[in-house]
Amino acid sequence: MKRIYLDHAATTCLDSRVKAAMEPFWRKNFGNASSIHKEGCDARNALSLSRKAVASLISASPDEIIFTNGGTESDNLAIFGVANQYKKGRIIASKIEHHAVLNPCEELEKQGFDVTYLNVDRSGIVDLRELKNSLRKDTILISIMYANNEIGAIQPIREIAKIIREFRKQNPNPAFFPFFHTDAVQAAGYLDLNVQRLGVDLMSVNASKIYGPKGIGFLYVRRGVKISPLIFGGGQERGLRPGTENVAGIAGLSKALEISREEQPKESKRLVVLRDYLAGNILEKIPGSVLNGHPTLRLPNNVNVTISSVEGESLVLYLDAQGIACSTGSACTSSSLEPSHVITALGKSEEDAHCSVRFTLGRETQRKDIDYLLEILPEIVEKLRKVSAIT
């Protein structure tokens, strides 16, 4: 049976071009970048070139790039890094952030920090008036994700940055906070990552969402923003992320980001057509189906729908048996029986959250793959609804 992979928000396959860029660092140039011999110097030079390339691709300086093991660590380093640096203050995040942001915020609440969780509207967009009204002089950090991992909603990052800049002018302080962090893990392959245009102070990116290797990512930290490390050891990554650098992974991340930047305009346009074709046909062919998230301000590859009277996990398993991989939401919480905090934040019921499923398209997705899904999906839904009615 041919497999059709429609879960690219969870992870992506390794691009062959990325693999080729990584190959030299597994056996030939395997040195430790901290060593002073030739092998170490070769590794350090490769590390430097990758850092410069990543920085250039997001319009940053090389010394503003901190390599991590992925999006979760980058988010944690941003949240705890700022909090531990300033010891007290207020933090603002949206209610639909990834748990890599929400869980650190909850932990900081236990430590005495004041955390405000912003509402979103029914399409998943942050209320800018609420954000503006939530700002206080003791606010040290605002963390709003660029694009949501479950519903694909794209947040007005530039507008948020403008609100923060205006607040800073009206409430000057030596530290120049509040700082603005965005989780750009899902956005990286599809949206503009130019940190100068976005106006962010910290930004998290993960290679495995852009056809790069797993276990590598980076945190952009604007020059002048002070954060504290989470772990201690050697002096790597300016002491903010000690440990022997994963040179092969970093080279892969650099190449994956380069490819995604080059192909993004054409690929995003292609995916929007497929996305709208899939969403429109689901809503037309399956009664009781509703699109979650904004109809247009969403990632080009994301279709998240609630299908009434159909348990999402069951639908995922039935589709898997027919060769289609999809999900009910974030892969990081797929083992949890709790309803999606993202769907309930839209004002939907827990039942609606349990009846939601996410399809995320990718570079290999073709029209025939969508047609196959649309052919079998109504039959599976009808079958599951009959079972539900019986029970």
From TrEMBL:
Reaction equations catalysed: (sulfur carrier)-H + L-cysteine = (sulfur carrier)-SH + L-alanine
Cofactor: pyridoxal 5'-phosphate
Keyword flag Transferase: yes
Classification via Pfam families: Aminotran_5
GO molecular function terms attached to this record: cysteine desulfurase activity; iron-sulfur cluster binding; metal ion binding
Alphabetical list of Gene3D superfamilies matching this protein: 1.10.260.50, Aspartate Aminotransferase, domain 1, Type I PLP-dependent aspartate aminotransferase-like (Major domain)
Ranges for domain Aminotransferase class V: 4-373
Keyword Transmembrane helix part of the UniProt annotation: no
Keywords linked to the UniProt accession: Iron, Iron-sulfur, Metal-binding, Pyridoxal phosphate, Transferase
Entry's transmembrane regions: none
Stated family: Belongs to the class-V pyridoxal-phosphate-dependent aminotransferase family. NifS/IscS subfamily.
Designated name of the protein: Cysteine desulfurase
Originating organism: Candidatus Giovannonibacteria bacterium GW2011_GWA2_44_26
